[in-house]
Amino acid sequence: MKKNILFIISILALTFGSISCKKSFLELEPKTGQVEANYYKTEDQAFLAVTAVYDAYAVQNWEFIPTMSDIFSDDAFCGGANVNDMSQWQEMEMSKMTPENNSASDLWNRLYSGIYRANLYLGKEDGVNWVTDGLKDRLEAETLFLRAYFYWDLVRSYGYAPIITEVLPSVEDYKTIPQNTPDEIFTQIASDLLKSIAVLPVHIPASEKGRVSKGAAQALLARIYMYHEGFAKPVLGVSNWTDGSTTIDKGYVVSALEDIIASGEYQLLPNYADLWDWENQNNAESLLEIQYSDKAKSGDWGGWNINGNFASVWYSVRNPDGDNDAIFPGWSLGVPTWSLYNEFEDGDPRRDATIYNADEKLNSYTHAFMNTGFFNKKYMALNAYIGSGGDPSHNFPRNFVDIRYAEVLLMAAELEMDDQPTKALNYFNQVRTRSLGADAAKSSITLDDIYHERRVEFGGEGLRKWDLLRRGQDYTASKIAESFSDVPAGVTNPDDFAPRVYDPNTWGGMFPVPASELRNTNSGVLMQMVPAYK
Amino acid sequence: MKRILFFLFCSVFSVSLYAQEISVSGRVTSKEDGQSLPGVSVVIQGTTSGTITDIDGNYALKAPANGTLVFSYIGMQTQSINVDGRSTIDVALEGQNVGVDEVVVVGYGTQKKSLVTGAISKVGGEELSKTADMRVTQALQGKTAGVVISSNSGQPGDNISVRIRGIGTNGDAEPLYIIDGLPMSGSGTDFLSSNDIESIEVLKDAASAAIYGARGANGVILITTKKGRKDSKMTVSYDGYYGLQNPWRKLRLLDGQQYMMLTNEAAINGGLAPKFSAEDMANYTNNTDWQDEMFYYDAPKQNHSISLTGGGDKITYSSSLNYFKQDGIVAKGKSSYEKFAYRINTVSEFGFMKFGTNLNLAHITSRGIDTNNHFGNGLAQAVNMPPIVPVKFEDGSWATPEDFGLGLQEITNPIALLDQLHSETKTNKLIGGLFAEIDFGKINSALNGLKFKSTYSGEFSLVDTRGYTPFYNLDALHFTTTDQASRSMDIWSRWNFENVLTYDKSIEEHHFTLMAGTTAFKDMHDNLSGSKKDVIFNDFAHSYIDNATDPESMNTGGGYSEHTVASLFGRVNYDFMNRYMLTATLRRDGSSRFGSENKYGYFPSVAAGWVVSRENFMSSASDAVDLLKLRLSWGQNGNENIGDFGYTSIIGNQNIYYFGDSKTQYNGTQPTKIANPSLKWETSEQTNAGIDFATLGNSLRVTLDYYVKTTKDWLVTAPVPLLVGNSAPTINGGSVRNSGFEAEVSYKKQLGKLYLETSVNGAYNKNEVLDIQNSEKRLQGGDGGFGQSGVLYAEVGTPMGVFYGVKTDGIFQTPEEIAAYTNADGGLIQPKAKPGDIKFLDANGDGAITDADRVSLGSPYPDFTGGFNLSLEYAGFDFNMFLYAALGQEVYDATRRYDMNGTNYREDWLNRWTGPGTSNYYPRVTFVDDNQNMKTVSDFFVHDASFVRLRNMTVGYTLPKSVLDFLKIRKLRFYVSAENLLTFTKYKGYDPEIGGGVFSNGIDHDIYPQARTVMGGINVTF
What we know:
The complex is a heterodimer of chains A (534) and B (1022). With 534 residues, chain A is mainly alpha-helical. Chain A has a two-stranded antiparallel ribbon with strand order 2-5. Chain A has a two-stranded antiparallel sheet with strand order 3-9. Chain A has helices at 2-20, 43-58, 65-72, 87-93, 102-124, 135-158, 182-199, 214-236, 250-263, 311-315, 338-343, 349-354, 358-361, 405-416, 421-436, 447-457, 464-469, 473-485, 515-520; strands spanning 34-35, 76-79, 286-290, 321-322, 333-336, 355-357, 362-364, 374-376, 400-404. Chain B is 7% helix and 48% strand. Classes of the chains: A mainly alpha (534), B mainly beta (1022). The interface between A and B is large, with 114 and 110 residues.
C-alpha cells in the first residue's frame, strides 16, 4: 500500500513540478515579425528602415497635397458627388476649415509619422554593421532630404509646428514639446537639405530610380526659396533663409539651379504628351517622382496601406460611357476650371494633354457637383492600368511627377530674368518652344509671361497655388475670384459655382492644428497661430 | 500500472454482503404533487444491486435488514433511508432545487451553498432552457442581479456583451468563461445549446473569482454541462421548437413626396437651386419602402435537440444532438446561422479512480451583414435611401440614387448591394477534455478526503470563410472591374492542463478543505487567406481559387500568434459547526503577455461568513428564519486581456515603397507601435458584503449584496499626440471604481393545485473613474455620425464612458436672437448661424463654439438593471413570464447620414423649423450647414434609451400522467412562446439595446434589431 502511495505521489510531484518550473513556457518570441532590440543591425535592415521614410512621402491618400493645392487655386474646383462629398476639401476651398477637418489631421499625422521614421533611423544608424563604402552617408542624406520635405510641408501647411529631431524617451515628452516659429522651421529645413545636397549622388542608375538625387534636393531648395521669398517673408514675417551659417539667397539658389542644368542629367522630352504616358515614367525629364505601383495589391480604405496612386480615381469621370472604355470610373474631384482651360493659347498641345474634355470624348457620364466637363488628364485613372489585385482604386501604377526639369528651367528663368536676361530667355524658350514650336519663341519675357508659361506647363501638377501665393495675397484672391467669374453663362449648374472668397486670415489656405492634437498635448503648448483659426 | 489495477480490483470487490436479507417494497412519489414516480432507481447502498420502480412507482427487492436504500431520480434529490427491518418503505422525493443546501460550483470544486462566502449567482439549466436564445449566456439576461447583458445586434449568431458589476476596464470588459474547466472567450460559447447546461455560476466578487487570478477581473462565468446520474434509467428526450421572427419596429420615414419637399427646402435654405422641379415631383411617384425591402418578415427559427442520459453504478453518460437554424430578420438569405452540435459526457469509476471524458463537436454555417455601421451594408442604407428610387427599373436593372441625380457616396440601393454579397463561414469545432481523479481515501482510510484531479482539455476550431465578389456596376462607388474568389481559414486552438489536489478533513466540528493546483494554458491562432480574380464561373457555388485565372491578382496572407499562462494557486476553506466560515486564496499567474519585469502577478483573497440562523440564540426564531447568513469578502484579480507583445516593439514590414525601373517592391520596416517594457497587470480589487435570508419554510429567499470594486493599472492605449509619429504604447494608466447594490428576491409556494414561483432581481451600479494616467486625464473614442469623433469620453469623476458633446439651447428663431447671442467683447458667438439653426451653449465662456465646449451628456450604461420572473403551474398548464429592465442609459443616435445631401429623413423632421415659433428642437433643413448643426457632437443626438422588455412569455401544457402512461412516455409538454413581445422605451431607433466595446457601446448606426419571435415547441421524455 505504502509503495503505491509513494508511486502516486511521485507522479503528482512530477506533474506539478513540470509545469511550475518551466519558465520558458512563458517566454514567447513573436513568430511573425522581428523584435526592435534585434533589428537595425544589417545594411539591408537599414535600407528597409529608410524605405519606410520614403513610404511616408508616398502614402498621401486623403490629404494628397498636389490635389488639395490645385483645388485651392484657380486651376481646379473641388467637385465630387455633391457639396458635402470630401467636405474636408470643400471646407478648405471655401476657407471654412475647422480644427476637426480630417485632411488637416491626416496630413499632420503623415508628416510627423515621416519625421518619426526619419528620426528613428538616424538614431539607429550608428548601430548598423556597415560594410559598403558610402552607404551610410547616402542613406543618411536621403533620410535628411525626406525629413526636410516633411518640414517643408508642415511649414507651408501649418506655419507654426513643433520641430522634433530625435525619438523622445517617453510619449509624455511629446505633450510638452513647444511649437516652433516658421523661421525656426525654415532653418531646420535648410540644415537638413544642405547636408543632404552635399552627399546625394548626381546620377541615379536605372535600378535605383525613385531614390533621391542631388538634383532633386537642389530643385526642392529652389522651390522652397521662392515661397520663402515671395510669401513667407511678407506674410509670415520670416527673416532671411539660413541654416545658421549658410544664407540661402538668390545667388545661392541660382547656382544650385545652374548646377542641375550643367549636370546634363536631365533633358526636356521632345514631346510634351510623352511625359504623361504611363509607359514612360521616371523619364529623362524627371528629377523626383513619387513611385506608385499595383504590386502591393492595396485594399485599405482606412489609410496607411495605399501604395498605388489614389489620386487617379479621384480625378476620373463618374460613370463614363464611351471613348472605347478607356476611362476607369472615378469620383470627379479636383475638376479643372474654365479659367485654366482658357489659359492655353490656341493650338497649344499641352491643353489636350492636361485636360480631358468629357463632353467631347464621352457619350455620357454623370455630371457631378461643380461639373465643368473637364478632368485632370495627366493623372486620371485608365482602364488599361487597373491593378492586378486588391482594390482597383488604390492600385493605379501611375507615379506622381513631383519635380521635373521644365520647372528647373522656368525657376532659373524667373530668378535670372533681371540679372542674366539672355540666359533666362533661353531657359524660358526651351520649355515654350517644345510645345508650341520654334516660331512661338519670345524675344523678351516678363514675370507674367513666366506665370503664364508655368500655368500651362504645370496644369494639374499641384504647383499653381504656390505660384499664386508668392505673388501676394491680393494677387491670389483676384485670380481665385477670376476662376469663378470665368464660369460660362450657359452652364446647367450655375448654383454650384457660388464664388469662393479667399480669406487672407488663412495665410494662403493654411490648415488649423488638428483639434485632437490640442486635446492630446498639454494645455497651452500648441496654439492656433493662423489668424483664421484663433 | 499492474498495481493500480490490483487496487481497482480490490476496491470493487472488497465490500461483500453477509448480512441477513429481507423483502422490502413500497411506493415512490413526488413530494410536490403526490404523483407516483416510475423509473426511480432503488439501490442498496454500497452494492450494485437494486431495482427500478414500475409505472405506478412501486418497487420490491431483497435488502439486508440493517442496510440502507438509496432512491435516486433525475431532477430529484437523492434520499438514503435505513431499512431498519421494515418491509414497507414509501418514499416521497423532493425536487432538486428545493433544499437550501444545493451545491454550487466554485472555481476548481464545488461547495454547499450555505457555506459559500462570496457573491455567486447560480442559474440552473432548466431556467436557461426556457428561452430560445442561440447563446446560452444571453439567456442569463435579467436572471441574476448585477450582470448586464446586451446584444451587440440581432444578427443570428452575433456576440453579446456581458458586464459583471459595471465596466472595470477601458479594454476588454468581457468576463472569463470556464466551460467544464476550459477557459474560453464569450464568443467561443456558441457550440453550446441551452439544453446541454446543467448550471451556470456567475462569480461576481473578487474572493470567488480570485482563484482565477489574472483573468478574473471582469468576473467569471462557470458553465457546467449536463452529466448523467448514477444509477438512473436511460432517459431519452426531445426538445424542439419552430418559430417565426419579425422586426418589432419600423422607423417612420418620409414618403417620396415628403422627401422631395424636404430635400428641395434644404437646397433652397442652402442657397442652391431646388433638387426637384415641379415636373420631377409629378413624375417621381415611386415610393419604395426600403425597410420593407430589407426586412425578412416571418423569418424562421428552429431548434431540435435529442438527449440521452443515464448511468449505472460505475458509469454515467449524457449525450445530445442539437440542430439549430435561424434566419435573420434583415437581408433574407444573407444573414443566417445554422448549427449541428453533438456532445457526450461520460464518467466512469474505477475503484479509487474516476475518469471522465467530454467531447463537443459543432458544425456551424453562418452568413452575415454589417450590423451597426453607417458605411456598411445593412439597415443604415435602407434608412438613408431616397424613397423615390425604385429597387429595379422596368428593364430589370438595379436603380441607384445616382440615376436620380443624387450621388450619395456610400449609400446606394441596399438590395442591389446584398445581391452582390456572397460569403459564407463554416466553423468546425472540437472541444473536449479528459480528467482523472484519484480518491486516496479509497486506497487508505488514513487518507480520507484527499483527492487529486488532473484535467486536460482543449479546443480546435477551424473557421473557413469563402467568398465571391461578382462583376457588377451599380454606381460611381459601387462597382468591380472583375469577379474574385476569396477564402480565408483560421485555426483557433487552445489547451489547458490543470492539476488540483484537495484535502477535505473534519475534526469534530471543524471542517477544512485545502486545495492546491497548477494550470498551464496556451492558445494559438493560425490564419491563412487568399484571393484571385477572373473566375471562370459566375456563381458562389464555384467560387474556389482554382477557378480563378488571373495569376497577377493572386493575393495571400497568413500568420500565427500564441499566448501562454501558467499558474499556481491554493485555497483554504474552513468552517466551524457549519456556522463560521473562512476562505482564503492565493494565486500566482505568469503570462507571456508581459516582459520579464512583470511576468508574474499575485492575487490574494479572503472571505468570511457567519450563518447567524444556526446560532443557539436564534433557536427561538428558527420557525421564522430558515437561513440568515452574513458574508464579507475581499480580493484581488488581474486582467491580461491585451494584445501580445505590448511590452516590446515588433518590427512591421508594411511600409511599402518601390525602387528601380521595374518598380521592385521593398517592404519598408518600422516598429508597429511604441514599446513599453514596464507594462504590468491590470488589477481589480473588490470588497463585497452580503446577506442571505430565507423564511416561510425556505419559500421566500432574499440575497443582498453591496460591493466596491476598484480596478487600477488599466492597460490603456493612451491618446498620444500625432506628433509621436507611431501608434501609442499600451501603458498602465488609470483606475475606476464600481460600487453598487444587488438584490435578489424569490418566492415559491404550492397553493393548492397552483404552484407559484416568482423572482425579482435588481442592481444599481455607480461607475466613477478615479484616475487616468495621461496628462490630460482623459480617454476619448467612438464615432458618431460621419465626421463626429470622440463621442464617448472618460475623465476623472465621470463614469467610464459618457457621451460628450455640446449642449444645445433650442433653435434661433430670429436674426435678433443670433445678434443678441454675444460674448463679453460683443462679438457673435455663432457668427455663421441663421434663423432656424441650433443654438449651442458656450460652456467654457470663451465666446465661441468649439470642441472645448463639450460636456457630459449622459451615459450609455444603465444605472439600474433588473429582471422579473413569474412562473405558474396549474393542472398541467404552465405559464412563464420574464421582464427585463434597463434604466437610466442613453443612446447616441447616428442613424442618419447628415453629411450627405439627399438622404431620407425620419418623419419627425416634418416638425422642422420653418419660421419663428415653428420648432425649438428640429432645426431648419439645409444643404449648407455653416452652423454645423449636424456635425457638432451635441445633445441633439443623445436620447433616453431606458427600456423595459417582455423578453419571454410562455404557456405550456403537460399531458396528464394517465394519458402518458397510455402512450408509454414519461413526459410530454407542448408550449407556445413569444420573445421580445413588448418593448417599452422612449427611444425611437430600431432597438434601445446596443452593446459593444467600451468606446462603441450605445452608439446607434441603425443597429440590426432583435427580433420579435413567436414559436411553438414540444418537450418529450421517454
